[in-house]
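Structure Section — protein described below
Tokens — whole-number codes for backbone shape
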Amino acid sequence: MLLRNTFTCALLVLGLASLMRTSALAADGPAPSEATVRAAVVEALTKQESAEQVAAIRKIPADAGPIAAELLTLWKEGGIYLHEDDEGKITPVTLTGEKDADGKQAALLLLDKSPFKDAEGKPILIDPAEVSGAETDSNIRRAMKDLTDMAALSNPDLKIRLRAVSDVGLELNLEKLPALLERQKVETHKEVQKALEQSIALTQLKSPDDAERIKACTTLGNIGSIPSQDALKTLASEATKEGKKDVAAAATAALEKIASHVKVVNTAGTMFRGLSTGSILLVVAIGLAITFGLMGVINMAHGELLVVGAYTTYVVQCIFGAGLTLAPFSQSSLTFTIPGMHATGATFSVYFLVALPCSFLMAALVGIALERGIIRFLYKRPLESLLATWGVSIVMQQLLRLVFGPQNVALESPVWLSGSWVVNDIAFNWNRLFVIGFAIIIIVLTWAVLNKTPLGLLIRSVMQNRDMAACMGVRTERVNMLTFGFGSGLAGLAGAFISQIDNVGPYTGQNYIVDSFMTVVVGGVGNMIGTVISALGIGVVDQSLQQILGNPVLGKILVLGTIILFLQWRPQGIFVTRSRSLES
């Protein structure tokens, strides 16, 4: 008996709890259906006076969703027509766009999107010139904006919802504070929750309650709200004039905290940009570290090998896209057409992954041709190799200009390299993160090739003592060819990376050749670790000086002057590479 009574009580408690939960859900109410929203918009459209239309618009629920924004935008842009019958009844409709011989179009009822028909069930054709469109004025458009802003707060699209929350907060409109507070109760995404906290505090700065304004200042200061600085400065000034010292002090304290946060953001951003710039410089210089540092060849055409990789990336992009038509001779009708795959979306974004090995191979082939055709006759003759490769660089520039034109070509970054990852207001661009990561991979692979493979053993033996290696049966000419091809291929990879963050033109390589040589020399000729340290150090110092001085040109000059002074003190670079061939 006791067990049965206990079980009955438990059922009653569960039933009561379920009833209370159902009542709570019913009190909150589900989001209005599309039919309800359409009916509300139709009601607003059929009002005669502007004030009545504004009142009807403001009655539409704020959680109406995207359909409300869609209909109001259609109204504002003149896409809704008002058909008036003989009895004076107004019916809002939209036109299908299908015209008959007289230019009339079929119409759809805005209420339910069904065909607009007469009493006999025949479609009513409308001439847009004879039917008045739904008009708006400034008051109606303001009411529309308020509603669409509120509706966007619950938009399922994260980007739209996040932007709406931020925009509403920047308006500093106390009338929209209840909607923000309601959204905060149900929001689950952390990024939007943070934006809501900031927007609510920003809006509360306009509150007549001093305690609430002080609390809002404290919140904005604690979260380091950069967008709130202007509002806080205004509040501090107004509070000082009104003699409200507590409010002014709270606003000033919040500004101090935000200023400290801004310094941290700027410092971290500068370090990241320095690392990414250094990584780009490292990718460019690593190939030169092999051809110049290990082989002793002063290759002034290294920048053009970089451009070969960049243009290869461009050609691969065109193959995945709409194709490419080249007209090398402007005075001639001779053209070359490369068909395209017309890929879109994720398939098109794959082009960059395909372009990476293609850029390496194309630049390596050009480098091998350069080594076999010219440089192999100029080993141990640095001045002649410098002059010869300088001439080659000029020829290659003109060839690239002839084939692709003098203008820069446009490259589109893949979706997965676009945008940035924002952490505590610090933006990490995906393309620069990719360059940093891939630079690490290139360094590891280059080290592995030089130290863990038979080719690396042959390269090191030839570079340390060419004559002894030849006496041991090493085919030094083949090793020279492969080494130069490998270094040139790395330059092509650098070109592929640069195509995602810089312009690509026939003369792009000239922007990097001097910095590359400086990086290799400062790090120590022939030393990979020195090249890494040198590239990252130059990149960080360059970005830091630009941030401190506020002048990129002056920053570059100071970096160059510092490098010159360093080489005067230590001409062999950070790390000294010793070998029998160098000592001789």
